[in-house]
User: Which sequence fits this backbone?
C-alpha cells in the first residue's frame, strides 16, 4: 500500500450517517491525512449527498484527504487498497419482507439480520451483491482488503472468503459489550482487559479482568442480581437507549457461564427460549423494540449534519469502529489488535475450520491475521455450532441458488423450528422467495423436490 496515500472505497456510501462516520474516522488518523476516499452507491445522488458532508469535514479539518464519487464499480475499485462494504441490498422494501412475512407465521424477529428467516434472506440478497464486488475487486484491485460491515456478518464473510477476496468482517458488538460490562461493574473501561471468541453476535467473554483481578465471578453475581433476581437496581439509562434490561443475555450466561456480545433484544431471536410466544417475549424483555419501525422512522436520532457539526466543534475524533484503525495499520505498519470476523482455520479448536468466527486479530502492514484462541467452553461452542449449521446451509444456498437449502437453513433455525411445523416453514419460505425474487436472480421458480 502506498505510504500515507491509501485509496479507500466505501461501497454503499449513499446510506445515512454511517458512511459519513467512517469517513470522519479516517480523517481522525494523522497517518491517513492524504487518503483518497472514493464513494460508490447504486443511488449516485445519495452518494453525492454523502460526498458533500465528507467534503465539509475535510475543509473544516484543513486535511489533505480527498473525496470523490465513482460512477461504477470498476472506476471505484481501480487501484483501491481497501474496500468497505456498508450496503443493505433491497433497502427497507426488501427488509419488510424479511420481518413481516415471518411475523404472520408467529416468528417475531426484533431485527432479523443474523439468523432466522430474516437473517438467511438478507444473506441471500447480500451474497448476490458481494459476488459482483468480489469479481470487480479480483479484476481491478486483487491485493485490496475488503472490510465488511454488511449483515448477516458470518454468512457474508464466509461466502466472500470462498470467492477468493481477502476479507474481514467488522462489528461494534465486542467493544460495545465490553463497555457495558465495565459500566455494570463500576469499573473504568480503559482498565479492563478481556478475551472474547465465538461467532458474530454470539462471541463469549471468557476472560474479563482489571489488572490481576478476575472479574468473571463479579459479572455473574452482578448481572444475575440486577437482571434476573432483581435484588439490585437497574442502572440509569438514557431516554434513547433501546436496552434497559439484560435478562436474556444473563440467562444465557447462567446456562454457559459466560456473557456474550449481542443485546438481549437481538439475542432473543436466536433461541426459542425467549420468543416462542408473545407472553415469553414480554416476560424476558421489559419493552418492545422493533428495528423495522426504527428504519421506517423519518426522525433519525443522529444525522449527517450532527456528525459534521461534532467534527467541526471538536475535530474529527475516531468513533470506535475498527475500519479506520485497520486502514491506518495497513498504511503505517502500526500493529493493532482488533476483533474481526474471519475464516476460523485453527483459531477456535472446537468450531469447524471453515466457519466464520469472531476473534482477536492482529492488523499491520502485512494484513489482518486471526490469533489463536484455543478451545471455547463446551456449552458456548455448542450454541455457536447450532448457529454455524444455519450459516453453512445459507452460504451454500446463496452460492448455488438451491432453493431447498434455503428451506433447510430456515428449518434448522432454533426459533423457527420451535414455532413452526415443516409444512408451515415450507409455505413461509416459498412466500419469501416469491416476494424477494427481484433481488434473488440466482434462484429459479421451481424447487427440485415436490412439496
Assistant:
Amino acid at each position: 500500500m502506498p505510504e500515507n496515500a491509501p485509496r479507500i472505497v466505501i461501497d454503499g456510501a449513499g446510506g445515512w450517517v454511517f458512511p459519513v462516520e467512517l469517513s470522519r474516522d479516517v480523517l481522525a488518523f494523522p497517518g491517513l491525512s492524504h487518503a483518497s476516499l472514493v464513494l460508490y452507491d447504486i443511488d449516485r445522488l445519495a452518494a453525492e449527498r454523502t460526498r458533500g458532508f465528507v467534503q465539509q469535514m475535510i475543509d473544516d479539518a484543513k486535511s489533505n484527504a480527498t473525496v470523490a464519487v465513482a460512477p461504477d464499480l470498476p472506476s471505484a475499485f481501480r487501484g483501491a487498497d481497501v474496500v468497505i462494504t456498508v450496503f443493505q441490498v433491497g433497502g427497507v422494501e426488501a427488509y419488510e419482507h424479511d420481518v413481516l412475512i415471518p411475523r404472520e407465521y408467529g416468528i417475531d424477529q426484533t431485527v432479523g439480520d443474523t439468523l432466522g428467516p430474516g437473517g438467511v434472506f438478507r444473506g441471500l440478497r447480500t451474497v448476490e451483491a458481494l459476488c459482483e464486488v468480489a469479481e470487480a475487486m479480483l479484476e481491478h484491485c486483487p491485493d485490496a482488503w475488503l472490510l465488511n460491515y454488511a449483515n448477516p456478518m458470518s454468512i457474508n464473510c464466509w461466502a466472500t472468503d470462498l470467492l477468493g477476496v481477502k476479507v474481514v468482517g467488522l462489528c461494534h458488538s465486542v467493544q460495545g459489550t465490553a463497555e457495558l460490562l465495565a459500566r455494570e461493574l463500576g469499573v473504568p473501561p480503559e482498565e479492563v482487559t478481556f478475551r472474547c471468541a465465538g461467532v458474530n453476535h454470539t462471541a463469549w467473554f471468557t476472560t474479563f479482568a482489571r489488572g490481576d483481578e478476575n472479574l468473571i465471578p463479579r459479572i455473574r453475581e452482578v448481572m444475575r442480581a440486577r437482571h434476573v433476581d432483581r435484588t439490585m437496581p437497574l442502572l440509569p439509562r438514557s431516554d434513547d437507549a433501546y436496552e434497559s434490561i439484560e435478562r436474556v443475555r444473563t440467562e444465557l450466561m447462567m446456562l454457559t457461564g459466560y456473557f456474550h456480545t449481542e443485546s438481549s433484544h437481538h439475542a432473543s431471536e436466536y433461541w426459542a427460549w425467549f420468543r416462542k410466544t408473545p407472553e415469553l417475549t414480554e416476560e424476558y424483555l421489559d419493552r418492545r423494540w422493533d428495528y423495522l419501525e426504527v428504519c421506517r422512522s423519518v426522525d433519525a436520532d443522529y444525522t449527517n449534519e450532527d456528525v459534521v457539526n461534532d467534527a467541526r466543534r471538536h475535530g474529527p475524533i475516531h468513533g470506535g469502529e475498527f475500519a479506520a484503525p485497520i486502514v491506518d495499520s495497513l498504511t503505517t505498519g502500526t500493529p493493532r489488535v482488533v476483533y474481526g470476523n474471519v475464516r476460523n482455520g485453527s483459531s477456535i479448536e472446537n468450531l469447524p475450520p471453515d466457519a466464520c468466527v469472531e476473534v482477536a486479530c492482529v492488523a499491520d502492514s502485512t494484513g489482518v491475521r486471526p490469533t489463536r484462541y484455543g478451545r471455547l467452553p463446551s456449552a458456548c461452542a455448542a450454541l455457536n455450532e447450532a448457529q454455524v449449521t444455519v450459516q453453512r446451509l445459507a452460504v451454500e444456498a446463496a452460492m448455488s441458488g438451491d432453493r431447498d437449502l434455503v428451506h433447510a437453513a430456515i428449518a434448522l433455525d432454533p426459533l423457527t423450528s420451535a414455532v413452526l411445523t415443516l409444512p408451515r416453514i415450507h409455505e413461509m419460505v416459498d412466500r419469501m422467495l416469491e416476494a424477494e425474487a427481484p433481488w434473488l436472480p440466482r434462484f429459479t421458480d421451481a424447487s427440485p423436490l415436490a412439496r
Summary: Confidence is low (pLDDT under 50) at residues 447-451. The first strand starts at residue 7 and ends at 11. The first helix runs from residue 18 to 27.
